[in-house]
Amino acid sequence: MIVSDHGGPKSKLANQLDYIVNKRVIIVNDEDFQVGMLPPCKLYMSTTVYKSKPSASYSMVKQTTKVFVNGYGNIGRRLASALSKDNEIGLLGIAKYTIDERILKDLKNKFDIYVPENLVHKYKNSITGTVREAVSECDLVLDAAKEGDGYSNKTRLYEPMRKPAIFQGGEERHGERAVAKMIHNSRVNYDEASGKQYVIQGSCNVSGMGKIMQPLIEKFGDEIQRFDVTLVRRWADLEDSKEVKDSIQWDKNPHHQEDVKDFIPHANLYVEAFKVPSRMMHLHQMVVRFHSKSPTKDQIIDLFTKEFAVAILNSAKGTADVRMKAIELGFEYGDTNMVHIHQDVLRVQGETLKIVYSDDQTGLVIPENHLLLQSMLMERPRSEAVKRTDELFQISEKKRMLEKEFV
Questions:
Q1: Less crowded by CB within 10 Å, the N or C end of the chain?
Q2: 3-class secondary-structure state, position 155
Q3: Residues forming a β-bridge with 229
Q4: Which runs of E-coded beta strand occur in 85-197?
Q5: Which residues touch 344 (CB under 8 Å, ≥6 apart)?
Q6: Is the distance from CB of 68 to CB of 92 less than 8 angstroms?
């Protein structure tokens, strides 16, 4: 996506990235950050985003589903941007809970804006309506609220109006504040989400583990003894204004283990998680122990070569190499929307296989949400849904480009 210059001042982060990448960095504010450059091919040409009253030519496309994005943070803005390009889905609009005139000016020509009732009087000439009105009008809500707010949105809005909703990975699966009875991973349980009212889309780390574990389980089954996974998590996204601390922090009780076992219940899985001072993707080391001799490297590479949203890279030296290449190639938001197995550090020793792969953090869950939406509302077969999602996000083409760059 190509974004034109904006007259407002850049944040400190934007100036740092402008220096690092030596590419154009455009920032509306710290919440609405995008990076881009002239694309190498027509794949990433600029796309017009229409409001609720599109042009006649756009209206000719039959829109079967009206979706409301409730929240406009790192996930919400990516969801809105993607759905606005999907001529099969009518993006009703977005919810903004913190707002000022500058934000309104920047967003009102892109999306219809809905706000809580307490902000209507102040911004009534610049918004479309209230969040409650949007929920009432839509067919499905993509809940992109701050972590933990999904439960109150469900009990206060979605349940009384009987509106289906997709929640993000920060919400509770168990206990009093549970928002849904299943966690979705498109590689594992896509079909089970069909017709469901409420589903959690797994977090980026959880989604990434599913994309690697499930092909291994399908191929080697009972030969696998256990999985030990170390998650090296980035501290913040590129566009976040919050401080990245000079510290390595550990999680005493990472939720990722139980979240994965929600959709792969019989996996003998152990997860440790550490947060490191980086903004450049997550990195996972997955140690797979077999009852007898481990598969060869070639067998593992062959297994993942044709996997959707799994790239095999050979010459990257770190997660920043992959992220900066994605920015250089003009990928929207610098997202690859996939995981990347690093072939040069793939290890086989006796009964042990070690796979190291980087995980595209926030960018990974956006196409997963799109797939989940197709299962819940359209009850579309997975193969057709993957094709549709690939057409929208161009994941297979991005994979080809990255594998060529890191051959």
A1: C
A2: helix
A3: 271, 286
A4: 89-95, 113-115, 129-130, 140-143, 165-167, 183-184
A5: 314, 315
A6: yes
Q: Which of 293, 209, 187, 195 is nearest to 256 (CA)?
A: 209
Q: Which residues contact 225 (CB under 8 A, 6 or more apart)?
A: 268, 289, 290, 291, 351
Phi, psi of 199 (to 5 degrees): -140, 145
Q: Residues near 9 by Cβ (< 8 Å), separated by ≥ 6?
A: none
- Evaluated on CA atoms 131, 26, 42, 370, the torsion sign reads negative
pLDDT in tens, 9-68: 444 444 434 433 333 333 333 333 343 333 333 333 333 332 333 333 333 335 578 999
Q: What is the pTM of this model?
A: 0.85
Residue 179 structure tokens:
């928002």
DSSP lists the bridge partners of residue 93 as: 68
The whole-angstrom separation of Cα 325 and Cα 270 is 32
Residues of the chain with CATH 3.40.50.720: 12-202+365-392
Alpha helices (H) in 12-68, listed in sequence order: 12-21, 56-59
Distance between CA atoms of residues 351 and 365, nearest Å: 32
CA distances from 346 to 54, 297, 318, 333 (A): 49, 7, 14, 29
Q: What are phi and psi of 82, to 5 degrees?
A: -70, -45
Is the distance from CB of 366 to CB of 393 less than 8 angstroms?
A: yes
Structure tokens at 182: 């299943």
**The token pair that represents 59 in the structure block:** 């209206």
Q: Residues 111-161: pLDDT tens digits?
A: 999 999 999 998 888 899 999 999 999 999 999 999 899 999 999 999 999
Q: Which CATH number fits domain 12-202+365-392: 3.40.50.720, 3.40.50.360, 3.30.413.10, 3.20.20.70?
A: 3.40.50.720
3-state helix, strand, coil in the chain (%, to 5): 40, 20, 40
204-364+395-405 CATH pick, 3.30.379.10, 3.90.650.10, 3.30.360.10, 3.30.310.50: 3.30.360.10
Other beta carbons within 10 Å of 89 = 23
